[in-house]
């Protein structure tokens, strides 16, 4: 199809004329600007959008409905402002909270949009901001700058207009990638004047989310040039090792046109599980209230009819209303009167608790990263309780688990291991220093003095060849800055190896198209490069064929142990020792490479070189023929040794994952990096262990077609775990159990790629479209599948993955990361958390129930879109196991007690209706109803919601099993709500009927038996009962807790004195209708005894239940674990950098970050500058 996205260079007017519709008759510019907007509101949309979001809560809709009812005087039993005022406070508080959160997003947007960049304006480049970039502009980027939009590379300061970019913030890969401009723009656009005159037109595909695909064409000066992804610089990548480069803006970021923004997903309002449950409970309570009001209204109609029949002399009073009319009006009156059963003050207190607990997270010094002055930040204040219910964590690798730092740690040369842990690293070196290590150069981290001294003596030919190989066999470029050599490596692994060789006396100095110069222990030698055998993921190795100054031809090879060891000429004692060293390095989770060499005769080289030259110009099967020739040359090698590089983890990552596992939280690693690298990190952070059965897609699927490639493993899992096998022959099932016979089958890990995930999702979509497709799962008794087949494919995969202890997904795109999270949420209904640091993690962070951004690194977009920001992955353990568990405990106790105290105090209105002719007459004084939930009972439960703890922070980390309680919803669920409702009903019945029983015959000249005294007695009985209940339920007492209980009683006394004073009654008798009611009632000893009796009877059941639980041992899961923590304490997880593991079978710890194609750049001379001269 013809492309419709046309970009004209240096022509803003052309792009501004195009509009496109996006909603009804509204339109926007087709070619957007570059200012991103992650904020949800602006000055015009804040009020309507925020109110729209707030009225998605059923409670708010209910309160508005009741307020509307109160405007009718015939049915109003409470003043209209009694509900309007708290609802307004609730909407204002929530609106302010959302406004504060959104202001933070605006600030983050502003910090990115105001980044400086150079834009061509007229005939020169001027410093402007990212927000000023438009499609068609030409921008100039300097070394280490971030690409502000999706650009077509026009030219650069590098030879052949190469541009090296780091895409760690996009796909998680740490190795540098190269992009190359078209030859025509490289040659013609060499000055600012030529840039200003450039009028090329690019026609390409519409904005899309395909990160690794691009198709287009450049039309300029009557010729058309094809464009692909190798010419494109994506927004978010960082320019490396390139002084200057120039690009034409194709896609900008404002309307999510850039590819990385297309992968970021949309902002969604997140709600916790408790929020969803509260919405449902509000509906249930509302329906119960309607039924109750209806029942009381019907009863009032019957009562009115009976009353009129018995008292016919009062017919004139009722002549205007029939019993049916009376029942109708009473129905709405009871609806208004009982509406306070759903207290708005609970939602107001909710917001305050969330806000303060968020501040506790922000103020936690244990999550403060002093090295970079970065505290933890709760960017969302309404998700704290869900931190205590996480079941799955989806983590990025690069920058989240690792530090992006590769360091040479150990090596094995001719069977001898050098490096930390060998006993030599603490020795003092002989002499005053190393003459070949010039001052000011980067250090490699080699600290084994024995290795340094052996290299200096130069009497070991194997060590000499080993170090020479490290200095020769690579694709690193070097820049001589006078007093310092700066290496520009496409791979951090290669840079670490070259630095190690340099610190040991073999310094890489320079290279040309066909030579490489190194300094060997102070002597400069130039080698002729005869051929470079490039690395790729299939070969897992690279080689260089060189001729030394003496004319000897040697092949130097480095690669994975699995491919190098099988190409050796012979195997002797040193090879056996090297294999043992590789096992040791693997146990220490180091990234290993084997290095080998061999001498090549002149005749062999000439014959091979002739065939290599012929293969290099083949038009068909060129790659396969070259691979065959490389394979032929890389035989009969002599093993020199092995290298071990440490991909440094962030501090505390292994210990954090260990604790999370004990807390029944499963950690999945989703990375754009290669499988070998991801697996190595999996072992390093203890996500994978040697006793696990590793399920890889290539080992369990053999058929290339999309259905078979995944159905074999999934159907095998389905049959193994559900006994659904339809026949006795299940080869895939047997293969699953035979992957690692020694490993227990219940400890499994799955490692899959993005391509495999695409097949799963694609097949699901195909099955949904083709419901008649004959492929079916085999079910018990031949029953038909009950669900859509596409959903079964996805569900089978999710069931398999969630049954494993670890899951690693490699080579996944940002969109696939989000899809993985979505699959687990869809099929497991689990609470998920996603954590990452780069723009490639934004979509995943937005999709998960909780999004955590790692701050302090290069990317800011992950933090901008996150709910919580941390500086280190290790802080996650405290965020979840301490703050998360505490917040869940506090909110659950808060809800239980709030519902209990509301039912206990206010359901007496229902019982009073049975004794007041079923009229909607309130039992309590109006001020008691207004202040009961705001002042009299709010403060004790507020202290619980802010400060409650069952165990200390230290114990929470020592016993992560306590976290399981939140995952299982034990502290607040429908059963707990039902028990709370019954408890509240019981308390209200006891408080009401004990008082009624006492007042029934309580008459006389000095007796208190009036309506006001009865109301005060019931109210005080209920109030004291709920206060004692919260006292019994509070586990963690502070001075603040005591003050809150005391304040509740004092406020009751104070407001009772103020609202029931005779002076107030004289001023406004309708507003203060209870003059001296409390004084009259409480001065009667009988009333005090009634209150005490009600308190004792209400408290005895709670004390009895607690005693029986303690005696019979019928504790909850949480209490059992707490009891274990107190009686049988176990030592905490020991924090150390590495834990030795037992090994069931030898595994390769090979990992190497590199991009194919760099050898070709070097041999063609595309990446080479003029050679510097180095003297001896």
UniProtKB/TrEMBL annotation:
Ranges that cross the membrane: 55-72, 281-304, 331-356, 894-914, 926-947, 976-999, 1011-1032, 1039-1059, 1079-1100
Cofactor(s), names only, from the UniProt record: Mg(2+)
One Gene Ontology term of the molecular function aspect: magnesium ion binding
Residues that, per the record, bind Mg(2+): 396, 398, 837, 841
Domain P-type ATPase N-terminal: 9-83
The entry's keywords: ATP-binding, Coiled coil, Endoplasmic reticulum, Lipid transport, Magnesium, Membrane, Metal-binding, Nucleotide-binding, Translocase, Transmembrane, Transmembrane helix, Transport
Coiled coil: 616-643
Entries under Pfam families matching the protein: Cation_ATPase, PhoLip_ATPase_C, PhoLip_ATPase_N
GO biological process, one term: phospholipid translocation
GO cellular component: endoplasmic reticulum membrane; plasma membrane; trans-Golgi network
Enzyme Commission identifier(s): 7.6.2.1
Intracellular or extracellular location(s): Endoplasmic reticulum membrane; Membrane
Membrane topology summary: Multi-pass membrane protein
Segment forming the signal sequence: none
Catalysed reaction equations from the record: ATP + H2O + phospholipidSide 1 = ADP + phosphate + phospholipidSide 2
UniProt family annotation: Belongs to the cation transport ATPase (P-type) (TC 3.A.3) family. Type IV subfamily.
Entry-linked PANTHER family: PHOSPHOLIPID-TRANSPORTING ATPASE IK (PTHR24092:SF78), PROBABLE PHOSPHOLIPID-TRANSPORTING ATPASE (PTHR24092)
Name of this protein: Phospholipid-transporting ATPase
Originating species: Melanocharis versteri
Gene name per UniProt: Atp8b3
């Amino acid at each position: 199809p013809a492309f419709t996205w046309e970009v004209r260079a240096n022509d803003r007017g052309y792009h501004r004329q195009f509009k496109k519709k996006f909603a009804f008759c509204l339109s926007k510019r087709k070619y957007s600007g570059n200012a991103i907007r992650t904020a949800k509101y602006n000055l015009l949309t804040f009020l309507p959008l925020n109110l729209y979001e707030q009225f998605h809560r059923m409670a708010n809709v209910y309160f508005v409905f009741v307020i509307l009812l109160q405007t009718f005087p015939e049915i109003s039993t409470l003043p209209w402002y009694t509900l309007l005022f708290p609802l307004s406070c609730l909407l204002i508080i929530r609106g302010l909270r959302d406004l504060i959160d959104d202001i933070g997003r605006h600030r983050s947007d502003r910090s990115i949009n105001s980044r400086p960049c150079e834009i061509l304006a007229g005939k020169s480049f001027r410093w402007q901001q990212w927000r000023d970039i438009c499609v068609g502009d030409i921008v100039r980027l300097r070394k280490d700058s971030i690409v502000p939009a999706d650009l077509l590379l026009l030219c650069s300061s590098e030879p052949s207009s190469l541009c090296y970019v780091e895409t760690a913030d996009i796909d998680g890969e740490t190795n540098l990638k190269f992009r190359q401009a078209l030859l025509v723009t490289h040659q013609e656009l060499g000055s600012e004047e030529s840039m200003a005159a450039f009028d090329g037109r690019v026609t390409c595909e519409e904005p899309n989310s395909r990160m690794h695909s691009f198709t287009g064409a450049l039309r300029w000066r009557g010729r058309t040039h094809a464009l692909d992804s190798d010419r494109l610089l994506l927004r978010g990548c960082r320019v490396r090792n390139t002084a200057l480069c120039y690009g034409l803006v194709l896609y900008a970021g404002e309307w999510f046109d850039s590819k990385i923004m297309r992968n970021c997903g949309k902002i969604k309002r997140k709600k916790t599980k408790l929020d969803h449950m509260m919405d449902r409970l509000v509906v249930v309570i509302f329906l119960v209230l309607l039924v109750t009001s209806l029942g009381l209204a019907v009863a009032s109609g019957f009562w009115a009819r009976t009353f009129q029949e018995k008292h016919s002399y009062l017919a004139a009073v009722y002549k205007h209303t029939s019993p049916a009319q009376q029942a109708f009006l009473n129905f709405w009156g009871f609806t208004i009167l009982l509406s306070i059963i759903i207290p708005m003050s609970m939602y107001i207190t909710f917001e305050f608790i969330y806000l303060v607990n968020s501040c506790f997270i922000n103020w936690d010094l244990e999550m403060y990263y002093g090295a970079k002055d970065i505290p933890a930040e709760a960017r969302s204040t309404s998700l704290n309780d869900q931190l205590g219910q996480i079941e799955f964590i989806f983590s990025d690798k690069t920058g989240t688990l690792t530090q992006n730092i590769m360091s040479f740690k150990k090596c094995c040369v001719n069977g001898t291991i050098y490096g930390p842990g060998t006993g030599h690293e603490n020795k003092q070196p002989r002499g005053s220093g190393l003459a070949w290590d010039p001052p000011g150069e980067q250090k490699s981290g080699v600290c084994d003095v024995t290795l340094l001294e052996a290299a200096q003596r130069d009497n070991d030919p194997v060590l000499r060849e080993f170090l020479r190989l490290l200095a020769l066999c690579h694709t690193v470029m070097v820049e001589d800055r006078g007093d310092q050599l700066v290496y520009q490596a496409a791979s951090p692994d290669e840079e670490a190896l070259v630095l190690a060789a340099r610190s040991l006396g073999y310094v890489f100095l320079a290279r040309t198209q066909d030579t490489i110069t190194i300094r060997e222990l102070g002597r400069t030698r130039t080698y002729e490069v005869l051929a470079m055998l490039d690395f790729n993921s299939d070969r897992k190795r690279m080689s260089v064929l060189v001729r030394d100054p003496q004319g000897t031809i040697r092949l130097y090879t480095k690669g994975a142990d699995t491919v190098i060891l099988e190409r050796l000429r012979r195997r002797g004692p040193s090879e056996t020792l090297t294999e043992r060293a590789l096992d040791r390095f693997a146990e220490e989770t180091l990234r290993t490479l084997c290095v080998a060499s061999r001498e090549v005769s002149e005749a062999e080289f000439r014959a091979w070189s002739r065939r290599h030259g012929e293969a290099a110009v083949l038009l068909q099967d060129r790659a396969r023929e070259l691979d065959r020739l490389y394979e032929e040359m890389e035989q009969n090698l002599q093993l020199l040794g092995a290298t071990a590089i440490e991909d440094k983890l962030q501090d505390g990552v292994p210990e954090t994952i260990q604790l999370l596992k004990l807390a029944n939280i499963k950690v999945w690693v989703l990375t754009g990096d290669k499988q070998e690298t991801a697996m190595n990190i999996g072992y390093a952070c203890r996500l994978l262990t040697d006793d696990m059965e590793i399920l890889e897609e290539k080992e369990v699927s053999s058929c290339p077609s999309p259905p078979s490639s995944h159905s074999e493993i999934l159907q095998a899992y389905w049959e193994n775990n559900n006994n659904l096998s339809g026949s006795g022959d299940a080869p895939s099932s047997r293969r699953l159990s035979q992957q690692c016979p020694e490993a227990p089958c219940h400890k499994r890990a799955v490692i899959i790629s993005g391509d495999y995930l695409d097949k799963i999702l694609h097949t699901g979509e195909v099955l949904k479209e083709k419901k008649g497709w004959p492929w079916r799962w085999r079910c018990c008794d031949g029953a038909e599948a009950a669900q859509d087949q596409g959903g079964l494919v996805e569900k089978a995969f999710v069931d398999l993955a969630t049954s494993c202890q670890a899951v690693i997904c490699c080579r996944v795109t940002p969109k696939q990361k989000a899809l993985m999270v979505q699959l687990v949420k869809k099929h497991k209904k689990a609470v998920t958390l996603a954590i990452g640091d780069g723009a490639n993690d934004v979509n995943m962070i937005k999709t998960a129930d909780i999004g955590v951004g790692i701050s302090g690194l290069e990317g800011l977009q992950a933090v901008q879109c996150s709910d919580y920001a941390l500086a280190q992955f290790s802080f996650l353990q405290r965020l979840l196991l301490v703050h998360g568990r505490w917040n869940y405990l506090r909110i659950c106790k808060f809800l239980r007690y709030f519902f209990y105290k509301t039912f206990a105090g206010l359901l007496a209105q229902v019982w009073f209706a049975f004794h007041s002719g079923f009229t909607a007459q309130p039992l309590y004084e109006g001020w008691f109803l207004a202040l009961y939930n705001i002042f009299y009972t709010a403060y004790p439960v507020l202290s619980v919601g802010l400060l409650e703890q069952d165990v200390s922070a230290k114990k929470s980390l020592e016993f992560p099993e306590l976290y399981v309680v939140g995952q299982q919803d034990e502290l607040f669920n429908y059963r707990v709500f039902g028990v709370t409702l019954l408890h509240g009903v019981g308390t209200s019945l006891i408080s009401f009927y004990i008082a009624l029983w006492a007042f029934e015959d309580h008459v006389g000249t000095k007796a208190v038996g009036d309506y006001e005294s009865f109301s005060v007695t019931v109210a005080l009985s209920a109030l004291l009962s709920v206060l004692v209940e919260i006292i019994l339920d509070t586990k963690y007492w502070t001075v603040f807790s005591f003050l809150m209980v005391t304040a509740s009683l004092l406020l009751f006394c104070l407001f009772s004195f103020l609202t029931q004073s005779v002076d107030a009654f004289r001023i406004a008798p309708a507003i203060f209708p209870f003059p001296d009611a409390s004084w009259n009632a409480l001065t009667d000893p009988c009333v005090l005894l009634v209150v005490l009796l009600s308190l004792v009877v209400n408290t005895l059941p709670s004390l009895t239940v607690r005693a029986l639980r303690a005696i019979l041992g019928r504790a909850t899961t949480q209490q059992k674990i707490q009891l274990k923590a107190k009686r049988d304490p176990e030592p905490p997880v020991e924090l150390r950098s590495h834990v030795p593991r037992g090994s069931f079978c030898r595994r390769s710890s090979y990992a190497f970050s590199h991009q194919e194609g760099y050898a070709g750049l070097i041999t063609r001379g595309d990446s080479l500058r003029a050679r510097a001269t180095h003297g001896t």
